[in-house]
Design goal:
This protein is α+β, with helices and mostly antiparallel strands. It contains 8 helices and 9 strands. The strands form 2 sheets. The protein has a 6-stranded antiparallel β-sheet, covered by helices on one side.
Length: about 240
């Protein structure tokens, strides 16, 4: 099965749509499209255009490259290289890589707010002992986002978070998304094109993918503002005067 190049466009309402393209043996170009999902129903084939050119056209419209995938005759999307003849019923895995996207095209004041939040959250993460173990080892997003926060100019940035990167990059981006800065669009999706929410309680599969769970990362999540701090009743009672009479 030929490899397709999958692109994604994120809408201002939070939704997204996908578009994929490949070059056929006869030189024609086939594209598929649809709302972000495990299946892309739309399809067309045409001649007289290069794949490179049509990809540039889509990028100019805001589409961002996601990954190379395989797509069967029904439009079902699969990981590139997956043995379809052995597992024809197997869809694109729910997790394997997380894809993130940040787009900022608003005014300078918004850019300053975004830059300030990036630096604030980074300071929180950098102070964690967990961060020391992965600092600059694998995930390049740390430096990318810090560089973008220097002058607060409009930008579009995307990347990936793999299992080896650990859970911190994902939590960092979730915390940034949770701020819902007006004029800043932040999205994350799994390889099955499922959009990831900022509700950690609704994402146990992603926590498991990183080898952790909600209780294990609760302290970090509370520091990043992803969870409300739990009330320690024992400590609260210790600090309360004895009012029995």
């Amino acid at each position: 099965m030929a490899a397709w190049r999958l692109y994604r466009h994120r809408n201002s309402d939070g939704g997204s749509k996908d578009w994929a393209v490949k070059t056929n043996p006869d030189g024609s170009i086939t594209s598929r499209w649809g709302k972000t999902a495990a299946r892309l129903p739309g399809v067309s084939t045409r001649n007289g255009i290069r794949q490179f050119d049509i990809e540039r056209q889509k990028q100019a419209k805001g589409y961002v490259f996601v990954a190379e995938v395989d797509i069967d005759s029904e439009g079902q999307v699969f990981l590139s290289g997956q043995a379809m003849h052995e597992h024809p019923e197997s869809p694109l895995p729910a997790i394997g890589t997380l894809y993130w996207h940040i787009e900022y095209r608003a005014n300078p004041a918004t850019g300053m707010a975004l830059a300030s939040e990036i630096r604030r959250l980074f300071d929180v993460v950098q102070a964690l002992t967990e961060y020391e173990a992965i600092h600059e080892q694998t995930w390049s997003g740390w430096q990318q986002l810090l560089d973008l926060s220097v002058n607060a100019e409009p930008f579009v940035q995307s990347g990936q978070i793999r299992q080896a990167h650990g859970v911190l990059p994902w939590l960092f981006l979730l915390a940034l998304k949770r701020q819902a800065i007006n004029g800043v669009e932040i999205g994350m999706a799994t390889e099955s094109s499922r959009e990831v929410s900022v509700d950690l309680k609704a994402e146990p599969d992603i926590l498991a993918f990183f080898g952790t769970d909600l209780d294990s990362i609760r302290a970090i999540a509370e520091l990043l503002g992803l969870l409300k701090p739990r009330l320690n009743l024992a400590l609260a009672l210790c600090d309360t005067d004895d009012c029995w009479f």
